[in-house]
């Protein structure tokens, strides 16, 4: 994702940094944190609680080695987003970038609704169809091709309806196209 001609990781990190600056959360969760996607953007003096959730324990070990010392309260949870146990009403911001494509969006939005405190914000970043590139970017690393059959692109209208059904209002939304041709939707919803 960080390959020079893809630059997707850099985009995801930039978006997360912008969200942290705009909403100034004291507690945040990054769903699909992998090796620490975006955690370099967290100011530990401003954000008191940081939770990273991922299904891959090796990714969480990497996130811990990269960010554990700088973020002393870092909580890393190994598990499926839909079934992992985070405290209800305990988060100010949940960042879910490119995770809805791999799970049941309705179940995931339900969990996010449970975890967010009143006034909390959910930021959902979805991959959109692109005429110029496939769901998985072409890179020298052929192993990532195994993801292609598992990605189910989610219609932003479906996501909006799911959040609205849980009492969220849309703060704003928009699309962005990277130089690679990959397109993304960012929807921001407040509880």
Model description:
- The protein is an alpha/beta fold and 191 residues long.
- It has one domain: Vaccinia Virus protein VP39 (Rossmann fold, 3-Layer(aba) Sandwich), CATH 3.40.50.
- The protein contains four helices and seven strands.
- It has helices at 8-23, 57-67, 105-115, 156-165; strands at 27-31, 49-54, 75-78, 91-97, 116-128, 169-177, 183-190.
- Residues 1-6 and 137-146 have low confidence and may be disordered.
Layout of secondary structure:
Elements: H1 8-23, E1 27-31, E2 49-54, H2 57-67, E3 75-78, E4 91-97, H3 105-115, E5 116-128, H4 156-165, E6 169-177, E7 183-190
Parallel strand pairs: 1-2, 1-4, 2-3, 4-5
Antiparallel strand pairs: 5-7, 6-7
Summarize the structure.
The protein has 191 residues and is an alpha/beta fold. It has one domain: 3-Layer(aba) Sandwich (Rossmann fold), CATH 3.40.50.150.
Strand fraction: 25-35%
Shape: globular
Widest sheet: strand ordering: 3-2-1-4-5-7-6
Kindly report the CATH topology. Answer: Rossmann fold
Number of domains: 1
Rg value: 16 Å
Task: Provide the CATH superfamily.
Answer: Vaccinia Virus protein VP39
Termini gap: 31 Å
Taking the sheet with the most strands, its summary is: 7 strands, mixed
Secondary structure class reads alpha/beta
List the uncertain runs: 1-6, 137-146
Helix content: 25-40%
* Helix count, DSSP H or I runs of 4 or more residues: 4
